[in-house]
Amino acid sequence: MDAMKLHIEPSSPDPIYRQIVGQITRMIAAGQCPPGTRLPSVREVAAAHAINPMTVSKAYAQLETQHLLERQRGKGMVVADRTQGVTSMEERLQALDPALRDLARQAQELALPVDQVIDALRKLMKDS
């Protein structure tokens, strides 16, 4: 996995370490990072995103505690063999539920039509 695959939003209200944990968790769940996948080193991620190495280390430690990553001597952090791999479509959609609820609330507050919000989301997903 390349350090640049992570998308860090410094201005997000979500702490950077949580952004890293969430993204790696979702990549593992979707099968984008199968068991044995080597993660970039703490220094690589910190340098690529101009963030504190302790932030990355905290994220990796949390993922290790959740048994999603394991530390291998000489290789660094890798996706654990014990991970489930690809989860069902329903489980992956459930992981999006908080963000979708927030999006729906904000769209309603802005009085935006559902069709336009869906079109905007489609465009964003095609562009990324």
Keywords:
single chain, mainly alpha, Arc Repressor Mutant, subunit A, two-stranded antiparallel ribbon, 5 helices, 55% helix, globular, DNA-binding
3D structure, described in words:
With 128 residues, this protein is mainly alpha-helical. The protein folds into two domains: 3-79, Orthogonal Bundle (Arc Repressor Mutant, subunit A); 89-127. Helix content is 55%, strand content 6%. It is built from five helices and two strands. It has helices at residues 16-29, 42-49, 53-65, 89-109, 114-127, and strands spanning 69-72, 76-79. Strands 1-2 form a two-stranded antiparallel sheet. Strand 1 and strand 2 form a beta hairpin. The longest helix is centred in the last third of the chain and has 21 residues, at 89-109. The protein starts with 15 loop residues before the first helix and ends with a helix. The mean pLDDT is 89. GO terms for molecular function: DNA binding; DNA-binding transcription factor activity. InterPro entries: Tscrpt_reg_HTH_GntR, WH-like_DNA-bd_sf, WH_DNA-bd_sf.
Topology readout:
Layout lengths: L15 H14 L12 H8 L3 H13 L3 E4 L3 E4 L9 H21 L4 H14 L1
Antiparallel strand pairs: 1-2
Helix pairs in contact: 1-3, 2-3
Keywords: DNA-binding, Transcription, Transcription regulation
Organism: Pigmentiphaga aceris
GO molecular function: DNA binding; DNA-binding transcription factor activity
What's the helix count? 5
Low-pLDDT sequence parts: none
**Helicity, in percent?**
40-55%
- Which geometry do the CA atoms define? globular
Reported CATH architecture of the largest domain = Orthogonal Bundle
Please, what is the CATH homologous superfamily of the largest domain?
Winged helix-like DNA-binding domain superfamily/Winged helix DNA-binding domain
What is the domain tally? 2
List the secondary-structure elements in sequence, H or E.
HHHEEHH
What would you call the structural class?
Answer: mainly alpha
According to CATH, the fold-level topology of the largest domain is Arc Repressor Mutant, subunit A
Radius of gyration using CA atoms only: 16 Å
Q: Indicate the proportion of strand residues.
A: 5-15%
Strand elements, count: 2
State the separation between the terminal residues, measured CA to CA: 17 Å
Q: Provide the spatial order of strands within the biggest beta sheet.
A: 1-2
Q: Sheet bearing the most strands, described?
A: 2 strands, antiparallel
Mean pLDDT score, rounded? 89
Please report the first level of CATH classification, the CATH class of the largest domain.
Answer: Mainly Alpha
